[in-house]
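S1.2 Input.
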Amino acid sequence: MADSIGVFRAMNGLRGQAPALKGCTFIQYSCCVQTSLFAADIEAPFPPGMRFVPEFLDEAQEARLLALIEGLDLAEARYKQYTARRRVAGFGGRFDYSTQRLEPAPEIPPAFWPLRERIAAWLSVDPLCFQHMMVAEYRPGTPLGWHRDVPEFESIVGISLQGHARMRLRPYPPSPGRSAETRQLDLPPRSAYVLEGETRWGWQHCIDATRELRYSITLRTMRGTALLLQRRAVNRAQVLRSHPGDHAPAPHRPR
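S1.3 Output.
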């Protein structure tokens, strides 16, 4: 655990003491560096509880993750009697659709901890909030049908790699026929999104059949964990109150 904290400090250039990692501790000082670490995230025009960053990773970070994925044992996802075209590997838990239970699975490999810690820094939370990770391969022509994630999980963070995809969202339960409320979001490589709250529980999402090879890494918190975006907003407000000088405009210095 100490190594994990050290990587978290090194990656994000944070000052001060690392927080105690108990349950899901929220890191109040990390949002001080939000604008310098990541591109601005986008809220509208999505339903409440969704955020999107089009350039969350750079090309070098993406390449390292793709190299790690090459070493994973991916297998076709099974849903009861149906075998999907996606190939996946799950860590921290594997949902068995025949028994409707979350079964044990290997822990998230240490090689993927820097990604988990980068996501945690973006959202100002403890990296250990994310106990589940799934890697998925979408070969050309592979879709992901309409669904909500299984109820054992709370918040969902998705990272797109190598190929483009289009996500669509619609209210749940869906209305018969086409709905004017359906939204769509293009997911370019290296982008990130969050689904939680109303978007996670009151909407379904799907991925249209991909036109090129694409990979995704999805991290999830367990059911009942505090919502990431709500805590992030609280922490940012606390930092602004506690350190107003850190966010004030730089004084003008005449040449």
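S1.4 Remarks. The CA atoms of residues 148 and 201 lie 7 Å apart.
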